[in-house]
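Trying the structure run again after the queue cleared.
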Amino acid sequence: MKAVVLPKPGDAGVLEPHQVADPETVGDRDLRIRLKAAGVNPVDTKMRAGGTYGGGNQPVILGCDGAGVVEDTGPACQRFQPGDEVYFFNGGIGTEQGNYAEYSVIDERWVAAKPASLSFAEAAAVPLVAITAWESLFDQGGLEAGEHALIHAGAGGVGHVACQLALDVGADVCTTVGSEAKAELVRNLGVNRTIPYQEVDFVDATLAFSQGRGVDLAFDTVGPQVLQATFPAVRFYGRSVTLLDPTEVSFKEARLRNQAIHLELMLSPMFFGLEEARGHQTSILENCARMLDEGRLGVHLERTLPLDKAAEAHRLIEGGHMTGKICLTMDN
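Done. Tokens:
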């Protein structure tokens, strides 16, 4: 099969199209999936530059998000059959093959039926960002109807999904944006309060949004400096969730305000083989598929590129100006 491989860590130019052996079904519940699209995420660029978690064997095939058609099933498979259209989060970390390829093999327990209303490319854009946003807002942050939420980078891959999930549950949402075009994107998603953080103090704007009380939940998708700067915008006894390593953060303000800090890394269940947690992530994909087909959730696919242009996709993400998601498509 054709695949894009990572022979060694480096810049985007190290990604190379190659012919590699087709993956084989080994487990009784394995599905062999003909991939039609693969999502590209910032974590892919980080592993390309610094090496995959667990020091996977070289060469590595990156890509955690995939969508395609089931071609073959193991003898104990019950959930899917050949011809079914599916989407999933799997592989691309350590030794397990990712989805920058024409075929993938995955246990059916970690697969969900593709939303019927989405193209394969749109579906492949969903899993990582949807699971991350869901776990952050609800499993970690406990967001409920009527609460105020600040979501940073609302036009980004995770951010634009998080805004919609928060609105769907009945929360009041404000979000930071870096341009008028990004503000327009999130307004089209239903967010009425956008904060142009380069022009105004986002803490002041957030306090005004929450009538001076501070938001119940803040969701940081940017980094330590933003997380630390956000604590004054969160109410006493409020909560913050971050996706990034908080090692360099001073928690003095959060401690004074008795705030809870939650860390989210949706890769952990796959990396550590946490089956119950992986099953929960599959249920998130099933719930999101229903929401997508019902029009309660949408995905902004900014760009699609052919599989052999994976290096260009990485450069676009590392350029820092993308909104929504980018996907690779296969011509098989």
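The chain is about 30% helix and 25% strand. Worth checking whether this holds up in the mutant runs.
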